[in-house]
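My main concern about presentation is that the manuscript never shows what a single data entry looks like. An entry of this sort, consisting of the sequence and the corresponding backbone structure tokens, reads as follows:
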Amino acid sequence: MNALKKYIAEFIGTFVLVFFACGTAAVVGCSAENGTGYLLTALAFGLVIVAMAYSIGNVSGCHINPAVSIAMLVSGKLSAKDFAGYVIAQFAGSTVGAAVLMAFVGKESGLGANALYDGNILLSLLIEVILTFVFVIAILGVTSKVENGAVAGIVIGLTLTLVHILGISFTGTSVNPARSFGPALFVGGDALMNVWVFIAAPLVGGVLAALVYKFLTSDKAE
């Protein structure tokens, strides 16, 4: 039952992320030329993390992102069973969130779906790996000490805002396979055809962040 509560929390958190943050992108736009909408979208993603961190963080850890969950798995902080449960819940939450969002704004809004940078798969993969690496290594760092608990949600939310401020102009910023899947599923077309980029790259970035952080913090004194 305890595990089920964690999965439900992850479902809720990812639903909120897609509905509010992707919803903001769909409503105000996230074009680099539209400064206000650009910043509002970046802030929306960060603020959702802050809200959810202090809402469900004590239940599931508030991953709401398979890239975070895989980093925790690699770091030995999450079991394989819970990893599977978390990812299923996250993708389900994103799908339902996107479906509800579409009822309000229609799929023509884009639903905050990601897109390739200049149609370039390689550059899109690269930017997403880099953005996810920075986001996840910040999470690993701030959550490594119990005394950081009071501020961890704020730090993580601001870091997500940071990576969006840069990444929106390239790919719309994924750094989260689940967040990308729901909108792409309903928008279809190129968004769905290329969604694998926004699933694969964040997972790679998450694993790299976990491995690098483990290396940097390992006690080499034998």
Notes: The chain has a mean pLDDT of 94.
